[in-house]
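Quick question about two entries, pasted in order.
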Amino acid sequence: MAAFGFQGTRDLSPQQMVVREKILDMVIDCFKRHGAKRLDTPAFELKEMLTEKYGEDSGLIYDLKDQGGELLSLRYDLTVPFARYLAMNKVKRMKRYQVGKVWRRESPTIVQGRYREFCQCDFDIAGQFDPMIPDAECLKIMCEVLSGLQLGDFLIKVNDRRILDGILAVCAVPQSKFHAICSSIDKLDKIPWKDVRHEMVAKKGLAPEVADRIGDYVQRHGGVSLVEEMFQDSRLSQNKQALEGLGDLRLLFEYLTLFGIAEKISFDLSLARGLDYYTGVIYEAVLLQTPAQAEECLSVGSVAAGGRYDGLVGVFDPKGHTVPCVGLSIGVERIFAILEERMKTAGLKIRTTETQVFVATPQKNFLHERLKLISELWDAGIKAELLYKNNPKLLTQLHYCEHMGIPLVVIIGEQELKEGVIKLRSVASREEVAIKRENLVAEIQKKLSES
């Protein structure tokens, strides 16, 4: 099991790293399939680059000690560094992915897979393109990753910041309160409407009738038919911003239908996504729990999220040149928590090494022969191990193979040396065959390709 590091961090055991690598490999394969290039950026950024980009969350940024006038902070996500990279390098078009650690001064709730240091996997499309084609591809990628990881049934909620702003405007929310009210709406997936309404009225000073008007909108969700319904809404259809957002969502649903994923998408008017930099379509994927899972209370919140942020690059560009961007982030820690829990429940044994062949001997004074033999295997690209002992017992060597799940053993002793052969033993079936020394590598490769 994992040892927890200091607060909000953890050490990952070899067993956990195996599970983690499988998740990352699957995610990265998907990103590559969609033509993305890999990018990496430093773990820290200039503090001024990060503040004011995250709204209420900017208090969670880790600041580093002032080292001679340089104020630096650990990166909070991979999106802001990407936007900074595009601006500094005057890149106008790029499809990139990045995998790396980010840091947040959260009060960690470990059970939900929330940490102060965690890994993010991001995919983004930057550039001026025809509307909603890249956005639809981002949602397709989310579906491919979540289906591929076999996490169970999921739903992707979609909304648009312009629709949300339009709703607040037509409900007569003062512009100065937009942000505060948005962050209340964003809690609707965790707490009921009456509590959200109470927060808006009692804590944020909104008139009760304004809150009720907002409630009529934000409790609604559905498919493309709800988009059409909103077009017909007498109040909302008066708002230019909301109409633009609805127009884009209508187009988005058309493309999602062509991609065969429309039934996985829900137009959800309560989705707000707290971050300040989103400008258009926003989305969030949640796992749908079976009744049994609900009883276990393994609630993990969203497992992937993202949206369109057309203004962020311009913030870093001295001349304010913008590059439209849309992207998504996969929540590796939460997915990892779910898969780990499942493997524990199923009692699955995880192999922590990929060793294919073990080099053994039944006799004393055979270390030199074993070393020559294993070197041949390594040079041929075969993953091989031996015990670091001059004269190990054969039983000890075979037990090690069983314990580590190593499939093949090659055995060399006096008899084999005399006859110019090597014994090849299958650990599972315990069958042994004698193979000519010079054919050993070819025979092992053949066996491995069959298994």
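Here is the second entry:
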Amino acid sequence: MKKFLLLVSISIGIFTNAQDVKKDSVVVDTVKHWSVLGKNSLMINQSAFSNWAGGGANNVGWLAGVNYNITYEKDKDLWENVIVLNYGQNNTSGLGVRKTQDVINVSTNYGRQFSKSWYLSSGASFQSQFAPGYEDGNNPKAKKLSNFMAPGYLNLGMGITYRPHDNLTVTLRPINARWTFVLDKELQVAGTYGLKADGDSSLLQVGFLGTAIYTLKLMENVNLTNTASVFSNYLDRPDRLVLAYGAVLSLKVNKFLSSNITMDVLYDHNQIEKTQLKQTLGIGIAYTLDNGVKRSDRKDSQWWLNKK
């Protein structure tokens, strides 16, 4: 009888231990290496006037946007992909429809960790716009300034990436090829976007590219996302830097309502020899998709929080 009870006890112990191992293995298996954070938004703005002594024109506008960050993190591998698509218009009484926002920005960056927060990296980025742009808003009778792939920018480069946490990513590429495409024949004029001769459809530059993304939580449901980049052409006037800065202030009302204020500053000698500035404000519907937990979001990897 004693031998029987001893055998039962051993069997129960083995079974319990096996269940614990199985439970732990399930926890490990549920860790996702892919994470998707995306924001889909539709913003509306409108103004109406009737016998208003101060004057003004009735107008209504809209702005649609998609902003996705798709990241793969496993062991020493880090692969981050960003997709930003924005387009908006405004219809003003007496002036007609004008474009207010037009952005295509897609980038990918792969890094292999060689030290804490540091990665050897390589990547590519593409920027352009959806529709033609004119000197007088969207008026096709005015002088055309831009179009889809006119300009279009393609960057390919290698360097290092510093990423201590999800809110800060800095990439430095001392080797970077930058192609400028002007595929609209009306805009293929020497000097336009740096083209060397009439009829040229592209321009190749080789130089240094630095980019940074920093997200700051100002208060609950209020975030400020900063992006910046600098490019220097080794082959022609490296002192003429291409500088860009963008800021997006997001104010979340609830799960579906939010407000965005954006500001973009750009200086590119090949476009115009002046600082360019753009600002937008929108209130509307926004839906955020958050699927998966990034490796650097997990508490066991947030070493900087415990750093004294």
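Reply: Helices lie at 2-29. The chain has a mean pLDDT of 84. Hope that helps.
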